Amino acid sequence: MILLKNGRFVNEMNELMMCDFLIKEGRILKMEPGIECDEATVYDLDGCLVSSGLIDVHVHLREPGYERKETIETGTKAAARGGYTTIAAMANTIPVPDSLENVAYINDLLKQSAKVRVFPYAAITIGERGEEIVDVEALAGTRILGFSDDGRGIQEAGVMYQAMKRAKAVDKPIVAHCEDDSLLFGGYLHDGEYAKAKGHRGILSVSESAQIARDIMLAQATGVHYHICHISTKESVELVRFAKAQGIHVTAEVSPHHLVLCDMDIKDDDTNFKMNPPLRSKEDRLACIEGLLDGTIDVIATDHAPHHEDEKARDIETAPFGIVGLETAFPLMYTLFVKTKRMTLKQLIDCMSTKPAQLFNLPYGKLEVGAVADLTIIDLDKEMEIDSTQFLSKGKNTPFNGYRVAGWPVMTLVDGNIVYQEGKMD
User: Fold this and answer.
1) Domain at 54-65+87-109+117-359, CATH class
2) pLDDT per position as a tens digit, 407-418
3) What percentage of the chain carries pLDDT values higher than 90?
4) Residues facing residue 190 across a β-bridge
5) In angstroms, rounded to a whole number, what is the distance separating the alpha carbons of residues 193 and 276?
6) Is residue 303 among the annotated active site residues?
7) What would the DSSP string read from start to end of 164-229?
8) What pTM value is reported for the model?
9) Which of 98, 180, 303, 350 is catalytic?
10) Rounded distance, CA 82 to CA 114, Å?
């Protein structure tokens, strides 16, 4: 048994309440002030926040196939340090999880090496090539969160329609990277002020929103749960707002970098500011913030995308897209949105824990007696600079190096087991 003494939690009124937590056999046995238990190992939290475990529905663990960038072990250690107890691994690996055999292989790797709970996605199409749909019915019976070709948009409407119909029949979500390749024109940064000033080829906003518009209509026709990855433009936010008003089962995520940065924040063609979708305009960023605050956007997901330093050392045109985010997401959001009173602490926990669990029908994201003891312990007063050299992830590619932020996770428990504690990993 574990007894967490002198913690605090956020109630429905966004009030911080003192509380002890007694954990037995992987669940919260008691949750009240003044608990005493001689049989338990006691940890004095000294007023730290106790949250239901953070959940990230969009992570690239790279293994199998790209272990030079990240491994399941290093990626899930980074997740644990960031306070995440459950993450979802995207399907752009080698092999692609597009068959029963490949999904079983990846689940075996996860069982061997993962430090936190990981659900893989299965691909929507064989090899993520956007052509032949996977055996949706067979794969739905495995331990997958849903179907996604993340990294590539499904270019053919007919393929997406058929995939949605079949996913709906087995009650699994379609999780979509939305990008119309015919509208890219070789772009690699947002088609905005920075790209124009520097002579870079831009990625049009409509390359994202056009495919979202198409898919919303397909989701309406099929009734599937359609989840949009890393939304980034004001037009996309408006489309999701329209879809929800029509009662279409559409949900969306946004990444911290699209809430914090815009294209004009890029410094000297630094490739740590290059991701896909790219950093958009200030107007897009503000629209994403508004969408998150009014519930149009449901959850915050990192799109953690580690790369080897040699790859990011290339020029900004040829360097790969992506930044890491697991170890910095909560302190960034807490410092720049909660401390500045743009959102409440309760709202932030909802977006990073409660809602992801609800959207994907997971039995987590709850802080109550009887719930699974997935807990994130956060020192809201702990303030320090982000230092990528100290990351547990292999990837050091972040635009937030040197940011001074507060609200750092100091302990993470999965199923009642401590998987991270102040720099020490089990």
Assistant:
1) alpha beta
2) 999 999 999 999
3) 99
4) 203
5) 17
6) yes
7) HHHHHHTT--EEE----GGGTTT--EESSHHHHHHTPPEEPTHHHHHHHHHHHHHHHHH---EEE-
8) 0.97
9) 303
10) 15
